[in-house]
Amino acid sequence: MLDDVTFTFIGPGVMAEAMAGRLIDTTGVSPDHIIMSGPHEKRLADLKTAYGVLTATSNTDAVQNADVVILSVKPQSLQGVLDELKGAISPEALVLSIVAGARCHAISAGLAHEAVVRSMPNTPAQVGQGITVWTASPAVGDVHKGYARETLKSFGEEVFVEKEEYLDMATALSGTGPAYVFLFMEAMVDAGVHLGFPRRIAEKLVVQTVKGSVAYYEDSPSHLARLRNKVTSPGGTSAAALYYLEKAGVRTAISRAIWAAFERSIELGRGERGDIQSE
Asked: CATH 3.40.50.720 occupies which residues in the chain?
């Protein structure tokens, strides 16, 4: 379906690179049907060498013949890109955004372009194991929805939602989710080192434990509490550990962290920078 589609990425960052690579590897899109556009010539040269894609330093030139324009810039850079590209994208093209917090109506108004898909992928997309929640403006037809779905499927699972407010929720839950998982894993590794394990052994134990737990769930899906109960013997080590975690408020802390990420996503959509210095 994507064989003859031309893609332009505005913002050649890590996620854009991952998406382009997966499109080439899994969907049959030719590298010469992908244009990476950005201001840094060395970065563009590296991408051209690695993937054979076309490059451009002018965003307006890059979108001229694009069937799909992917906005992959940082939230604080979006307004400048919208101002630059307003009226420059073909009315027949699809705009697909992965910019956190940016609403469909804001992108559509900023570009003077009706067909907009808003999506929230996460970093496991870089290894083809991502999950992306996406929605579409009313002007996006079936063909363009097909383009979006196949593009997002190239680097993992995809979930379409009718209500755009779910995107801010997805940003907090799955978009930011890998950070929670890595923090939890890091804490487990550090605890293993504190117990006396060499770090390399602690890391191997933790990584395989997480992978195995997910595989176990996928093999026999049931409520997570039921799986937890299966490994919690009365008076055992798991019971002692879980009692301490609950007493320390870990469950509440996780919930509050996700809510904070949700509120931040809404702030980004309003163009509020707040006190946060980096994303």
From this structure: 7-163
Q: Which amino acid, 252? A: T
pLDDT mean over 184-209 = 98
Between 149 and 222, the higher pLDDT residue: 149
Containing 110, the helix (H) or strand (E) segment is helix 104-111
Q: How far apart are CA 59 and CA 75, in angstroms?
A: 17
CA distance 131 to 35: 24
- For residue 134, what are the β-bridge partners? 119, 160
Provide the 3-class DSSP secondary structure of residue 98.
coil
pLDDT tens-digit profile of 128-154?
Answer: 999 999 999 999 999 999 999 999 999
Q: Strand 7-10 to strand 68-71: parallel, antiparallel, or no bridges (unpaired)? A: parallel
Q: What is the pLDDT of residues 20-41, one digit of tens each?
A: 999 999 998 999 999 999 999 9
pTM: 0.87
Amino acid at 81: V
Q: Which of 137, 156, 131 is nearest to 26 (CA)?
A: 156
Helix (H) or strand (E) holding 24: helix 14-27
**CATH domain 7-163 topology:** Rossmann fold (3.40.50)
Residue pair 85/10 in contact (Cβ under 8 Å)? The answer is yes
What's the CATH architecture for 177-269?
A: Orthogonal Bundle (1.10)
- Assign 3-class secondary structure to 41-97: HHHHHHHHHHHCCEEECCHHHHCCCCCEEEECCCHHHHHHHHHHHCCCCCCCCEEEE
Q: Where in the chain is the domain with CATH 1.10.3730.10?
A: 177-269
